Amino acid sequence: MENTLLTAETAEKKRKKAISPLHVVLKTLAVLFLAVLCVLFLFPVWWMVISSFKTEDMIYAQMDSWQTFLPGTWNVADWFVSYQKLFSSFEYFGQSILNSIVYCSVTIAAVLLINSFAGYALARLEFPGSRTLTTVIILLIIVPVETSIVPQYVILSKLGLLSTDLRVVGYLLPGFVSAFYIFMFRQFYLGMPKELEEAAEIDGANKLVTYFAIIMPLAKAIFATVAIFTFMGAWNEYVFAQLMFPNPKNQPLQVFLQLVNTYNPKDLAVVMAALTFSTIPIAIVYIFCQRYIVEGVSFSGLK
Amino acid sequence: MKNNALPVRAKGMYFRFLGRSFKKHDAIVGAVFVLPAFVLGCIFVVAPMLVSLAYSVTDANLLALNNVHFNGFVNFAEAFGDTYLWNAFLNTLEFVVKVVPLQLCASLGLALILNTKIRCNTFFRWAFFCPVMLSLAVTSFLWMNLLNEQEGLINAILENLGFSRQPFLESPKQAMNVIVFISAWQGAGYQMLIFLSGLKNIPPEIYEAAAIDGANPVQKFFFITIPNILPTFSFVLITMLIGAFRLIVQPMVMTGGGPVDSTMTMSYYIYTQGITFRNVGYSSAIALLYTFFMAAIALTLRKLMDVKD
């Protein structure tokens, strides 16, 4: 496949006479180099997905041959044996997916509401101390404070949020507020024209109505960006989640993987199925929202 | 909340506070809007820092938090003599020194190549971005299985190519290098995307003007691309550096800090001291020292990078 590509490229280049041979050679080398790197980047992920469609015996039998990178059978109906096994042998796997979805949705909703309000207030509604607060927030972003997990755990225990019933609350609450998101919202609102709000004010709308009816629809882009970043963070959370949920029943997917991976007897195909399964939601988000991710990152990079 | 947002619009509703004047209505609504974030931030962002600061001079134990004694600077003195701590610190430094250049070169190099009109551009971009979609936990579990000495895919490939089987994560010499490689593999695609957007933001007029002035591609690269990508570069470098200093998930999942503490990192050591060994006081003291260390590096870098702009 590479060869046809290259000859096609050379032919095209010949038609355009202005391009030098050196250029063609360089470009060919670059494509070759990228192709090699591409294999290096992709094969583990490819193998993970392909192996999840096999049985464990098949994975081990094919490990020594190139067949390990091809589906074991072309009968698509047989591909999902390991997935069925995953759900049947781990009582709480389905529950852990649900947990992840619930934790993520609640976190996203709360983060958007709480931080956008704060960002708006800091951008538009001056109150005594608002400037100091902004400075503190910028400081919190700039100064890297080392893991607050231990003191956070202590505080949660003092607040009584480590009891079995309230653990979920204790897990979720610290994720609701972020200096970084407040700052992002503030910057966005600062860049928005004031005239619309002033017009709404003259028409007699109160601040809350103005906010929901006029500001929010105009700020869709920043809401989408923050929602996606929050989703990525919440979905991938591991360290704090494994500390908070020793009980499999409440564990989110990322932590539940630990149980699947260490379960005895271990079934490699089932592990791969679990890993693949837990990647699907985040992959969908990345595929459809890449634009927002890039925008968000370059936005935050501008300081 | 709604009570404060009454549509009252009287003239001259201002008040003065510490020499500055505020619109009364705006100030009240603003304060209410900030309140939820302020309360949560105080409890879960600021309070942990203060608690950490306070506990760092005590013998606090996770199981006996009501029985805490001031013990001065014993924790700090102990920290400097703690060989496990120094080991964790050096391991972290090793990780940072290896992973940052590797990942930076990989992501910037890929972005520079993909920014040209090369074939299959979109496909390549997606391919390099693919590992980013795996979470750190998934990445760790996946590679743990791939690198297994007896049953892993990598060793099967190595054997087919005529090499001997390697212990990888079970060898004190190889484990950290493996984590470096895996982390760069997982993360490079993300920074590549950032660099690509930075490169796309360079106005094409500059290149056209340079071409009219007779600049060759090498000159264009050094006098246009490099200076224009510098802000993006410094942003990526600082975030990557801080992220690397905080390495914890990969060793926690794959090696548990071993073998022979060869992958024990600072963040993981602070966590282990505080949670596993329940020495909240000691853990807080090390966390404080480490915060100073990271803040010093981050702020110095910021200063250096800003001067260049």
Descriptive overview:
The complex is a heterodimer of chains A (303) and B (309). With 303 residues, chain A is mainly α. Chain A folds into two domains: 2-88, no CATH class; 90-301, MetI-like (MetI-like fold). Chain A has 15 helices and no strands. Chain A has helices spanning 2-15, 21-52, 56-62, 81-89, 93-124, 130-142, 149-158, 167-172, 179-190, 195-202, 207-218, 220-236, 239-244, 253-262, 268-301. Chain B has 309 residues and is mostly helical. Chain B folds into two domains: 2-55, no CATH class; 76-308, MetI-like fold. Helix content of chain B is 68%, strand content 3%. Chain B contains twelve helices and two strands; from the N terminus they run E-E-H-H-H-H-H-H-H-H-H-H-H-H. Chain B has a two-stranded antiparallel ribbon. In chain B, helix 3 packs parallel to helix 7, helix 7 crosses helix 9 and helix 11 packs antiparallel against helix 12 (280-308). Chain B is flat. In chain B, 40% of the residues are buried. At the A-B interface, helix 2, helix 5, helix 6, helix 7 and helix 14 of A face strand 2, helix 1, helix 3, helix 4 and helix 5 of B.
